[in-house]
Amino acid sequence: MEVRELGHLVLYVRDLERSRRFYRDVLGWREVAGEVPLGVAAAAFSSGRTHHELLLIEVGPQARPVPPGPRVGMYHFGVKIGESDDDLREALRHLEEAGTPIQGASDHTVTHSLYIEDPDGNQIELYIDVQPEVWRDDPAAVFAPIKPLRL
């Protein structure tokens, strides 16, 4: 067996409409139309690369929050949002206009990244690959020391 690509991510959310607005209106993901099975409150999103890359399933307001700090499980997920720092600057402007707090900004040598949280506290890395793609010539660059990002 060989993994070819990460196909999709499924997140439980407290409030589907709140999360739907965030992923659609703030991040610009396209919602996939379709009938959701009876009794399931869910929404799917795609960048157009595949049938869906993100599925949200509502679990209600009583669901436990994502615990802070180091824990077992997902730390964050990353989405590539462009090809250049100009794309990242545009994303930063858009996020600020939408009132989305920036949790961090890092130069990872192979990527330049902004970090935000969704309405349920899941951390999201918005990134561009540094051009030319450093990691293709030097795979070890993935583990280069993290530096502050200067946009």
What does the model show?
With 151 residues, the protein is α+β, with helices and mostly antiparallel strands. The chain has two domains: 9-58, 2,3-Dihydroxybiphenyl 1,2-Dioxygenase, domain 1 (Roll); 76-148, 2,3-Dihydroxybiphenyl 1,2-Dioxygenase, domain 1, CATH 3.10.180. It is built from three helices and nine strands. The strands form two sheets. Strands 5-8-7-6-9 form a five-stranded mixed β-sheet. Strands 1-4-3-2 form a four-stranded mixed β-sheet, with helices on one face.
Query: Mean pLDDT, nearest integer?
Result: 95
Helical proportion? Answer: 10-25%
Poorly predicted segments: none
Which strand-content bin applies to the residues? 25-35%
Question: Which CATH architecture of the largest domain?
Answer: Roll
CATH level 1 class label of the largest domain: Alpha Beta
Write down the secondary-structure element order: EHEEEEHEEEHE
Total count of helical runs of at least 4 residues: 3
Question: What's the shape?
Answer: globular
Structural class label: alpha+beta
Strand order of the largest sheet: 5-8-7-6-9
Number of domains: 2
Radius of gyration: 17 Å
What is the fold-level CATH name, i.e. the topology of the largest domain? 2,3-Dihydroxybiphenyl 1,2-Dioxygenase, domain 1
What's the number of extended β-strand segments?
Answer: 9
The termini sit apart by 41 Å
For the sheet with most strands, the description reads: 5 strands, mixed
CATH H-tier superfamily of the largest domain = 2,3-Dihydroxybiphenyl 1,2-Dioxygenase, domain 1
